[in-house]
Amino acid sequence: MEIREMLYEGKAKRLYSTDDPEVLYLEYKNSLTAFNAKKKAEMEGKGELNNLISSWIFKYLSKKGIESHFIEKINDNCQTVKPVTIVPLEVVLRNVTAGSICKRLGLEQGMKLSRPLIEFYYKEDELDDPLVLEDHALLFGWATEEDLKTMKEITLKVNDALIELFDSIDIDLVDFKLEFGKDSDGKIILADEVSPDTCRYWEKGTGKSLDKDRFRKDMGDVLGAYREIWRRLSERGE
Ligand code: AMP
Q1: Contact 26, 78 (CB under 8 A)
Q2: Ligand 1 centroid from CA 21, angstroms
Q3: CATH of the domain at 62
Q4: Which pLDDT band, with edges at 50, 70 and 90, does 237 fall under?
Q5: What is the pLDDT of residues 112-135, one digit of tens each?
Q6: Position in ligand 1 atom list of the atom nearest CA 175
Q7: What is the Å distance from ligand 1's center to 234 Cα?
Q8: Is 99 in the pocket of ligand 1 (CB under 6 A)?
Q9: For the SAICAR synthetase/ADE2 N-terminal domain, which residue ranges apply (predicted)?
Q10: Which residues contact 172 (CB under 8 A, 6 or more apart)?
């Protein structure tokens, strides 16, 4: 496979075309950002850990019948993925209150919700990815009714699969963010990544954060937490 031009550079990844139009090359960077890149750092080894964790989780989800853009892990920092047109919505699922919902609604952190809550955010850095209603997405053409229904169904399936997975390694899945894209047949599949950058993981019993909150809140040992997630996943076996 020949890597050609860079198509896009985001906060945590770079995307390249290859000599095969059905294959893109996705490089995980060592950058960590929070609060829409108002806080930034470089951490050697972070790209490699997220590539390992995200590849592992996409493979696990595929075994559970959940399709994603992931093709295969190529080397420490890179994986190949299918080309998709990204839906400009971030889908957040919450099992427990934490983060922006607590700030926005004045809620206490750590309240278990009686059922999963799904929220949509408009993917637009200049606006700080605002929370939007489904009607906004429909009226402004970001997604169709069918797209929203499909994304919600897949998000709930991902939640069931990830709760089962993280329960088995003594971690509570608090919340996570997904992104979706449409493949060449117009089918909605999971895209982006599923990693400690995009999920909240609390260790059962201690409540210790094992995710990007350690960076957001200056809790220290960010990479140690990512390594711990990888250790538990790899020891669990597929
Ligand atoms: P928040 O809305 O900040 O409480 O985030 C809810 C969940 O979605 C957390 O697991 C975050 O890590 C994740 N999340 C929200 N926005 C983003 C983003 N722009 N990039 C990566 N993860 C995000």
Answers
A1: yes
A2: 31
A3: 3.30.200.20
A4: confident
A5: 999 999 999 999 999 999 999 999
A6: 10
A7: 24
A8: yes
A9: 7-232
A10: 95, 96, 166, 201, 202, 203, 204
Check: CB of residue 27 under 8 Å from CB of residue 13: yes
CATH number at residue 159: 3.30.470.20
- Report the domain count for the chain: 2
| Ligand 1 neighbour 178 (Cβ under 6 A) | no
CB of residue 100 inside a 6 A radius of ligand 1 = yes
Task: Write down the H helix ranges in 2-144.
Answer: 46-63, 100-105, 134-139
Mean pLDDT, rounded, for 44-63? 98
Does residue 162 share a domain with residue 124? Answer: yes
Same domain, 157 and 127: yes
Integer-rounded Cα radius of gyration of the chain: 17
Instruction: Assess whether the C-beta atom of 92 lies below 6 angstroms from ligand 1.
Output: yes
Range of the domain at 164: 85-221
Last residue in a domain, options 81, 111, 139: 81
Question: In the chain, pLDDT over 70 holds for what percent of residues?
Answer: 100
User: Average model confidence (pLDDT) for the chain?
Assistant: 97
With a 6 A CB cut-off, is 214 part of the ligand 1 pocket?
A: no
